[in-house]
Specification:
Helix content: under 10%
GO biological process, one term: ribosome biogenesis
Structural class: mainly beta
Organism: Buddleja alternifolia
Distance between the termini: 36 Å
Shape: globular
Number of helices: 4
GO cellular component, one term: nucleolus
Number of strands: 33
Keywords: Repeat, WD repeat
InterPro entries: Glutamate-rich_WD_repeat (IPR051972), Histone-bd_RBBP4-like_N (IPR022052), WD40/YVTN_repeat-like_dom_sf (IPR015943), WD40_repeat_dom_sf (IPR036322), WD40_rpt (IPR001680)
C-alpha cells in the first residue's frame, strides 16, 4: 500500500490556519506530495492522508460481490487444468450468505471468468511524479494487459442461488466430488447438498448471464442432520476418503459422518474432549483416520477415530480462543493455528512428545485471526486473515539478508526499504476489505488467493509470489 494526500490543498489550509482572503487563489496550488510505501503496524495515517493500492504489487486484483455478505465460501476443483498460469483465468466457488432476514439466505454457486492480469516486475520501475495517484479499481485493466493478450474487459460473474434455511456459518465442498457440499447453518442444522445441475449449467454457459442468477431455487438437501446440540462452525471433508466428514458445534461435540451407498451414516455418539465450543476441524492430509480440532478453550486436539471418542493428544495452543487451524498438505508434520488475540503459531507435530512443538509464533496482527490456510503449492507459505482488515501472506523460509536488501535498494534507487519493525517472513499485505472472514488458495492456479469480507470478495495474485510446480506430498 502507498499513502498520499487525499486533498493536499485542503490539508495545508487546515495545518497552517487561514486568514480572510488567504488560500482562495486558484493560482496557489500546493505542491504534489510524493507517494510513500506505508508500513502496516508501523506507520500511522496523518490527517488528510489516505491509503491507495499500488497496482504494481499485484499480477491480478479484482473485487466482486454476490449480494448479501458471505461468512464462508469454498473454491471448487474444476476440469480446466491442474496447473494454470496463463491469463485470463476462470474460477468456480460456492458461498453461503448472512442475510438480514433468515428467509433471505441462500447458497450461491458461481463462476468468475475472464479474470485478467499480467506478470509484474519484482523490482518496480521508477515512477514519474505524476504517477502517484493510483486507482485500485483499474489495477489490472491496463492497456498493456490487452496488448499482451492476457484478457480484456471486466471479469464476468455468473451466479445461481439455492435457498438455505438460516444463515450459513461455514460451507465446504468435497475435494473428490466438488458438486457435493456441506453447510453449517445458524439454525443448528448440518446439511449436505448436490449442486451438480447448477455446476453443469455454469460450465456449459458462455459469458452471457444465465438463468438462475437473480432467482433463488428451492432444492432439498441430500441429508439434514439435527443431532448437534447447538449451531457450529467446524466442518471438514477428508482429502483421503471420499465422503468422510466431521462436524463440530458450539457445545463442544464432534460428530463423524461415514458415507454409505446413497447417504451417510452419522455417529450419534460424539467425540468429546474440549470444554468449550469447537471452532474448526481439519483432517490429516496423510492419515485417513486422524483429524485435528481447535476450541474456545485455547486447545488444539488430535483425534484418531480408531481409538475411541477422546483425543489422542491435547495441546494448550494459545492463551485465548483458538479460532482456526490448517494442516499442511505438503509437509504433514506442520499444523498452524490462529487465535482471538491476533497471534498465530506453527507446530511441528513430530516434537509433541518433547513438549514444546512450536517452531514459529507471530504477534503481527492485533485483532482476532479469522482464517488461516497453507499454500497448496509451497510448503513454507500460508495466508492469514484478521479482523484488523488485513490479509497477510507469510513465507516461513525467509530470513533477513542484508546483502540482498542492499542490492534491492540499489536497483530501486532507495525508493523501497525493508522496515526493521516487520518480520522478514511477512511476504505480502493486502488491504481494502472490511471485516475479513475467510481466505483460500486456488489449488489449480498457483499464486491466486480469494477472500471474503463484509463488503464482498477479492481475487488477488501478489506479484512477489513465485510459485513452482507442486512437489509430491512430504510427510516430513
Amino acid at each position: 500500500m502507498v499513502r498520499s494526500l487525499k486533498n493536499p490543498k485542503k490539508a495545508k489550509r487546515k495545518n497552517k490556519g487561514s486568514k480572510k482572503g488567504e488560500g482562495s487563489s486558484s493560482n496557489s496550488a500546493a505542491p504534489a506530495m510524493e507517494a510513500k510505501v506505508w508500513q502496516p503496524g508501523v506507520d500511522k495515517l496523518e490527517e488528510g492522508e489516505e491509503l491507495q493500492c499500488d497496482p504494481s504489487a499485484y499480477n491480478s486484483l479484482h473485487a466482486f460481490h454476490v449480494g448479501w455478505p458471505c461468512l464462508s465460501f469454498d473454491i471448487l476443483r474444476d476440469s480446466l487444468g491442474l496447473v494454470r498460469t496463463e491469463f485470463p483465468h476462470t474460477v468456480y466457488c460456492v458461498a453461503g450468505t448472512q442475510a438480514e432476514k433468515a428467509s433471505w439466505n441462500s447458497i450461491g454457486i458461481f463462476k468468475v471468468s475472464n479474470i485478467s492480469g499480467k506478470r509484474r516486475e519484482l523490482v518496480p520501475k521508477k515512477r514519474n511524479n505524476d504517477d502517484t495517484d493510483m486507482d485500485s479499481e483499474s489495477s489490472d485493466s491496463d492497456e498493456d494487459d490487452e496488448e499482451e493478450g492476457n484478457g480484456s474487459g471486466a471479469p464476468v460473474l455468473q451466479l445461481r442461488k439455492v435457498s438455505h434455511e438460516g444463515g450459513v456459518n461455514r460451507i465446504r465442498a468435497m475435494p473428490q466430488n466438488p458438486h457435493i457440499c456441506a453447510s453449517w447453518g445458524d439454525t443448528g442444522l448440518v446439511q449436505v447438498w448436490d449442486f451438480s445441475s447448477h455446476l453443469k449449467a455454469l460450465i456449459e454457459s458462455d459469458t452471457e448471464a444465465i438463468h438462475g442468477g437473480s432467482t433463488i431455487s428451492n432444492q432439498a438437501p441430500l441429508v439434514k442432520f439435527n443431532g448437534h446440540r447447538d449451531e457450529g462452525y467446524a466442518i471438514d471433508w477428508s482429502p483421503l476418503v471420499a465422503g468422510r466428514l466431521v462436524s463440530g458445534d458450539c457445545k463442544n461435540n464432534i460428530h463423524l459422518w461415514e458415507p454409505s451407498e446413497s447417504t451417510w451414516n452419522i455417529d450419534n455418539s460424539p467425540f468429546v474432549g474440549h470444554t468449550s465450543s469447537v471452532e474448526d476441524l481439519q483432517w490429516s492430509p496423510t492419515e485417513p483416520y486422524v483429524f485435528a480440532s481447535c476450541s474456545v478453550d485455547g486447545h488444539v486436539a488430535i483425534w484418531d477415530t480408531r481409538l475411541g471418542k477422546s483425543p489422542a493428544v491435547k495441546i494448550k495452543a494459545h492463551n485465548a480462543d483458538v479460532n482456526v487451524i490448517t494442516w499442511n498438505s505438503l509437509a504433514s508434520c506442520m499444523l498452524a493455528s490462529g487465535s482471538d488475540d491476533g497471534t498465530f503459531s506453527i507446530r511441528d507435530l513430530r516434537l509433541l512428545k518433547e513438549g514444546d512443538s512450536v517452531v514459529a509464533h507471530f504477534e503481527y496482527h492485533k485483532h482476532p485471526i479469522t482464517s488461516i490456510e497453507w499454500s497448496p503449492h509451497e510448503a513454507s507459505t500460508l495466508a492469514v486473515s484478521s479482523s484488523d482488515n488485513q490479509l497477510t501472506i507469510w513465507d516461513l523460509s525467509l530470513e533477513r539478508d542484508e546483502e540482498e536488501e542492499a542490492e534491492f535498494k540499489s536497483q530501486t534507487k532507495e525508493e523501497v526499504n525493508a522496515p526493521s519493525d516487520l518480520p522478514p517472513q511477512l511476504l505480502f499485505v493486502h488491504q481494502g476489505q472490511k471485516d475479513l472472514k475467510e481466505v483460500h488458495w486456488h489449488s489449480q492456479i498457483p499464486g491466486m488467493v480469494i477472500s471474503t469480507a463484509a463488503d464482498g470478495f477479492n481475487i488477488l495474485m501478489p506479484s512477489n509470489i513465485e510459485t513452482p510446480l507442486p512437489p509430491a506430498n512430504n510427510t516430513c
